[in-house]
Amino acid sequence: MFLGRRDFVKASAALIAGATLPLGAMRCAAQELTEDDIEKILKSPLDRKEVFPAKKSEVYTAVPGSISRNEMTPRLSAATHNNFYEFLPGRGGPVWRYTDDFEVEPWTVEVTGLCEKPTKFDLDDLFKFAHEERVYHFRCVERWAMNVPWSGFPLHKLLAKVEPKKEVTHVRFVTANRPKQMPGMRQADYFNWPYCEGLRIDEAMHDLTLVATGVYGAPLLKQHGSPLRIVVPWKYGYKNPKSIVKIELLGSKPTTFWGVDPYEHEYGFLSNVNPNIPHPRWSQARSYWLDTQDWFKTPRFNGYEEQVAALYPDEPSKPQRPLQAGEIAR
Length: 330
Hints:
Largest sheet: 8 strands, mixed
Strand content: 15-25%
């Protein structure tokens, strides 16, 4: 039974980042959407007219110049193909179809660990932070990409409220654990829920790292990670945890959802977007637009090299060989 379960988990892992939806299927899916579907897909789960649309950033007004196109990905495209295993395990797809029972209000986020003032923030507390809209380039490990206007505030502003202690080295994020509301958790009970991710403290404190509460000028949709998620634009999408309920300040590197056997040679802790580091099952040298599937060259650090390269003096600048099972990814 143990070996059979292990084989099933490994087989499931083959779907995690490899599944892509062909262009024809995407167009067919879009054509099959009714007006009621579209209304449901784009319906905001929160009402915060005093916050959204947020003031546009004066700094992050466009994606980096190394990105092949500057226009925003269509809102409907970004809302109809998502990776959110708590609702749709094993692949990206129409997560919106499975979120009906998910309740995002009321909501609290506990910030705890090595800090002077552990605090629980409710939504009113979070929406009191000065919000702005930032245009970021987003890259999934599956190779699809999009340009997105996120709304929110830098994570360092939230962490400053709890006064991190000097011995903090890492930050851990824990997402919602609600199997009754999240059908993917019931279907994929072989995963070690809840989903958790982590950053080094210097990454978490970087001004690019965003607590996102909105997208496309409105509150986050459930399929985007409502009511709040983290956006780290120079890392692969799985490093951007959704629907967060807890943030822990730690003195050592935490274990992450994908950082365990049999996934650790595919999904590393750093996971910076780097065309020189292939996934064990495909090259990361090229990306494609989610809405058109047109291909383009993947830039180092997803285009944000100027801002973040100094954090990673040993980041590979030449092509690397794919890692094998038993080897640990960056």
